[in-house]
Amino acid sequence: RNVPSREVPLTRRGVAASRMLGEMHSAFSDADVFFVSEYVRAKETAHHSNLTQTWKVDWRLNERDWGMIDH
């Protein structure tokens, strides 16, 4: 598929890792806010982690987008 990397969703393995992240993080952190990039998989990670803190999207966290060069 010719999909830009910023639009690639999480795999099933990524979803499982996100849930594990949420379980581990809730036990060790008291952070109130988390920041994610605009990338689809970053926002999906936030969703699947089931953490109840505020999530803010910040474009400055985006990876460099090399367009179709990375395919």
Share of residues in helices? 25-40%
What is the overall pLDDT average?
Answer: 86
Residue fraction in strands: 5-15%
Number of strands: 2
Q: What gross morphology would you assign?
A: flat
Quote the distance from N terminus to C terminus.
Answer: 9 Å
Radius of gyration: 13 Å
Total helix count?
2
What can be said about the biggest beta sheet? 2 strands, parallel
Which spans have pLDDT < 50 for at least 5 consecutive residues? Answer: none
- Give the strand order, joined by hyphens, for the main sheet: 1-2
Structural class: alpha+beta
What is the succession of H and E elements?
A: HEHE
Would you write up a description of this structure?
The protein has helices spanning 12-28, 40-48; strands at residues 33-36, 54-57. By secondary structure, it is α+β, with helices and mostly antiparallel strands. β1, α2 and β2 (54-57) form a beta-alpha-beta unit. The mean pLDDT is 86.
What key attributes describe this structure?
alpha+beta, 71 residues, single chain, 2 helices, 37% helix
In brief:
The protein is built from 2 helices and 2 strands.
Layout of strands and helices, then pairs:
Elements (H helix, E strand, L loop, with lengths): L11 H17 L4 E4 L3 H9 L5 E4 L14
Parallel strand pairs: 1-2
Helix pairs in contact: 1-2
